Amino acid sequence: MEQNKHSELAAVSTVPLMMTLGNSMFIPVLPMMGKILHVSPFQSSLLITVYSVVAIVLIPIAGYLSDRYGRKKIMIPSLIIAGVGGLVSGLAAVLLGDRSYALILAGRFLQGVGAAGAAPIVLPLVGDMFKKGSDVSSGLGIVETSNTFGKVLSPIIGSLLTMIAWYAVFLAIPVFCAVSVLLLAFLLKVPQQQGKRVTFHAFYESVSPLFKQKGRWLFAIFLIGAIGMFELFGLLFYLSEMLEERYGFDGIVKGSLLAVPLSVLCLASYITGKAIGENKPLMKWLTVSGLLLLCLALVGLSWFNARALWGFFGFVAAGGLGIGVALPCLDALITEGIEKEQRGTVSSIYSSMRFVGVAAGPPLVSLALDWTAGALFYSLAAISLLGVATAVVAIKPKNGRQTARQRLP
Fold first, then answer.
1. Domain enclosing residue 329, as ranges
2. What is the pLDDT along the chain (409 residues), one digit of tens a residue?
């Protein structure tokens, strides 16, 4: 990797880190917030979902705008909007207390608008920054590690902030966003390839054949990305509820326990990103292996749900390992298989589908809390198995030293 790119990559990596902190740190505190705001588990889960739903809609638009006007010009204003959204939620909680639920949701909606134009643009930006495919894969691995490291820190930081005040998690968001804005403003140089302005009609004419030619494997990766995040956030929500309601863990203890499987996911993402290089077949089979491991872990969770806590955590960690192996491979397949001019839009659709998983996981699992453990975890395992089958059938990279366009037909 080029030496002068390290500081730029560090600045870019703060975006998924800060955006993840601004969302995932609510996971351990949702039960407490539900009690304070006098809402049901489903309603409290909407604090995660509303953020993700609005991002799902706006991410493809942000991707197109980043292809046309440049990544940095879209990312920085988006981070500012996300910070304002956090401020709205925080001030609503401070001023209205337990009557602030509706305004908190409105602030989370605004934060989702900002998130749509920030974190998803990181993937194509990393693709723009490096010329060698191995450097792109390594950079994407670091970005995915930053994302997952944010998930590791989130339950701990969220628990610590609530020791100050239950609404402190909202007021921390503008601070996180300000850090990323300053680092991007001073450290990130706009890659020369950016800024080429194309009309929407001309852009559509170039993208339409792309999906006709490569739609099979692209849509497969979109679906698998959604499945991975659905399983992850659904499991985290379930684990948070179980630790508090069944075992009586809360605060920093619960946050630290939630960080254990996420640490495994983070380490797996980093190692995988370093290992895959430009080997597309390896990316495919690591994706298949990761999803299969997740499936087996979910089956194991149905057995250990009411037994020893250590066994339950072991299976959750195994599931995190599987997701951590799959995600960097999906990132690399998307980024390295698409030309720079269309990379922002295509990778943003992929990010949008990941947000679909984030949005669906907590509320759907909350509705299934009354199910038996077998019914819940076997259902989740079946969804993971769908991802395995999709990867095997639809992702067919060719081996050899070919161009990205040739390797992924």
1. 3-407
2. 455 678 888 889 899 888 888 888 887 788 888 889 999 888 888 888 888 788 888 887 887 788 778 888 899 999 999 999 999 999 999 999 999 999 999 999 999 999 888 877 887 888 788 766 667 778 877 887 888 788 788 888 888 898 899 899 999 999 999 999 999 999 888 655 444 555 555 555 656 777 777 778 889 999 999 999 999 889 888 888 888 777 778 778 877 888 888 889 888 988 998 888 888 899 999 999 999 999 999 999 888 765 667 777 888 889 999 999 999 899 888 877 777 666 667 777 788 888 788 878 888 888 888 888 889 999 999 999 999 999 999 998 865 444 334 344 4
Q: Can you tell me the distance from the alpha carbon of 9 to that of 16, in angstroms, rounded to the nearest whole number?
A: 12
Q: Measured at the alpha carbon of residue 268, what is the angle toward residues 111 and 58, in degrees to the nearest 5?
A: 25
Residue 316, CA distances (Å) to 71, 215, 259, 297, 367 in order: 36, 33, 11, 7, 20
The rounded distance, in Å, linking the Cα atoms of 110 and 57 is: 13
Structure tokens at 105: 């949701």
Q: Which residues contact 347 (CB under 8 A, 6 or more apart)?
A: 63, 120, 123, 124, 127, 334, 335, 338
Q: What is the CATH number of the domain that holds 141?
A: 1.20.1250.20
Distance between CA atoms of residues 190 and 129, nearest Å: 9
Tell me the one-letter amino acid at 380.
Answer: L
Number of domains comprising the chain: 1
b/e burial code for range 48-82 (CB count within 10 A of at least 16 → b): bbbbbbbbbebbbebbbbbbbebbbbbbbebbbbb
Q: Which of 237, 198, 224 is nearest to 341 (CA)?
A: 198
Count other Cβ atoms within 10 Å, centred on residue 279: 18
